[in-house]
Amino acid sequence: MLAGVPEPVTVRVPAKINLALQVGQLRPDGYHDLATVFQAVSLYDEVTATPATGISVAVAGEGADTVPSGPENIAYRAAQALAADVDAPGGVALEIAKGIPVAGGMAGGSADAAGTLVACDALWGTNCDRGELTALAARLGSDVPFLLRGGTALGTSRGEILADVLARGTYHWVLALADGGLSTPEVYAAFDRLGSATGPGPDGVLAALRTGRAEDLAEVLVNDLQPAAISLRPSLSRVLDAGADIGALGGVVSGSGPTVALLASSAEHAAGLAAQLAGLGVCRTVRRAYGPVAGARVVDVTAR
Ligand code: ATP
Fold this sequence. Notes:
The protein contains ten helices and twelve strands. By secondary structure, the chain is an alpha+beta fold. Strands 1, 2, 3, 4, 5, 6, 8 and 12 form an eight-stranded mixed β-sheet that branches. Strands 9-10-7-11 form a four-stranded antiparallel β-sheet, sandwiched between helices. α1 (74-86) links the parallel β3 and β4. The chain is globular, with a radius of gyration of 19 Å. Bound molecules: adenosine-5'-triphosphate. Adenosine-5'-triphosphate (ATP) is lined by residues 67-68, 73-75, 96, 102-110, 112, 143, 181, 184, 255-256.
């Protein structure tokens, strides 16, 4: 390291699954009121921040060719917003290694924004507290505050207002990743067009999480956007049916889709389900993940 030049900072940041997603009224600002239960799961992007003049973004990994590398990248906007807020010079080269599917309903872009806030705060030594970072995160996007925080949380308003929930246990998921993404605004437009009803909301999920039993959670997984996502991508029904056929405890489209999350009873059960699902050819690829996991955290790359 050159004297006075900070070392690069790498932050690992998870994906999310919505265990419950209740979509309410369309608000005057164009957003729907939501009540959602987020869980952070062990599928990660890594954001590395290196000192530089000006801001740049390079993206590698899963679906990188479909992600913008300039100012349209939400990570770029996160660095810019932090620099403006703390009045820092704001130079950084951001490298994003994507493990979260792009436009998969798992909030990969929001994860990168959260990771960038933590990475730049450490790189620039701006030492923002969690409250400041959370306020900035909420301005960048509805899911960004949750990816900063991780764990399991209840999200209301656009999803950016978070409350603790009592969640016991670790849950094992099999994720069916689709070919190509779904646009979140298009899924909400389909929700409106279909005149979709608002479902039962998060109470069942909150009660199940208190028991820590995956069997209980599987019964109550709910996503009001699921019919809209299926209307745009009918093949998602086949994935959900396949999950039930091979013995998943339950399944749900994650957020706006098209990723489908299947719940297993244990890590071993998830391994078996993943192998069977991959053999059926109903999705592009299959991943396993568990949750809840921590939100955006600096990683010690020298320990690897
Ligand atoms: P959500 O679940 O929050 O609705 P998503 O997981 O479905 O989001 P993202 O992966 O966040 O979708 O990407 C949505 C779009 O945002 C992509 O099509 C991409 O063009 C754009 N985008 C901008 N920055 C990023 C980024 N850092 N990573 C991924 N996509 C990005």
